[in-house]
Amino acid sequence: MERITNLILIDADMRRRATISHALSAVQIHVEPFETIAELSGSWPRSGVVLVHDDTHAVGNLIECMADHGEWFPIIAFSETPSAERIVEAILDGAIDYVAWPIAADELNGALSRAVARAETVGSAKLREVMARARIDRLTRREKEVLSGVASGLSNRLIGDKLSISPRTVEIHRANMLNKLGANHTSDAIRIAIEAALVN
C-alpha cells in the first residue's frame, strides 16, 4: 500500500482541524491545515493528498482552484453522516474518495493510502480533465454547442441546420471557440472536448 506523508487539510472548524492533525501525527503524517480554499490558494503546497470538509460545493471549488494552478492533488471529501447523493456529487465533482466523520486515525490512514494508490493511475488524466473543463467553462452556450457539433464530425452547414443558424454564424462561433480554448486547429478543440468528457 502506498505511503502518504503530507496531508493538506481544509476545514473551517478549528477543533476538527486540531483533532485530525493530532490523530495523524501519531502515524507520522504531516498535516498542513487551512481554514478555507482561498487560504490554500495563497500558499500552494508542493505535494500531498487533500482532505476537505464537504460544505457547499467544496470539491468543485477546489477543483477550479487546482485548474487555476495547473496542478492536481487527490481529494478525499468528508462530512458528518453524508447522504448517498452528497457522496456521488462529490465523486462526480472530482473527489477520489469520501469518508464519514468522525473516523478513526487508522481508517483515515487507510483511506489516504488508497487515495495515493488511485492517484497514480488517474492523476495525469484528472489534471488534463480539470484543465480542459476550465477552458470549456470560458465558452458561451452557443460556442459549446458548436464544439459539440465539431467533435461529432458535423460540417458548418449541418451544425447550422441543427442549431437553426447560418453556416457563416457557425464559422464565427467556431473561430471564437478556437480562440477561447487556445486551440490552433479543430483537432486541438476536439481533444480538449474529449479530455473534458464533453464527448465520448
TrEMBL record:
A GO molecular-function descriptor: DNA binding
SUPFAM superfamilies assigned to the protein according to its UniProt record, in alphabetical order: C-terminal effector domain of the bipartite response regulators, CheY-like
Gene Ontology process terms (BP): regulation of DNA-templated transcription
InterPro entries membership: CheY-like_superfamily (IPR011006), Sig_transdc_resp-reg_C-effctor (IPR016032), Tscrpt_reg_LuxR_C (IPR000792), WH-like_DNA-bd_sf (IPR036388)
Tree of life domain: Bacteria
Domain HTH luxR-type, residue spans: 132-197
PROSITE patterns (UniProt xref): HTH_LUXR_1, HTH_LUXR_2
Protein's name in the database: Transcriptional regulatory protein FixJ
Protein source organism: Novosphingobium colocasiae
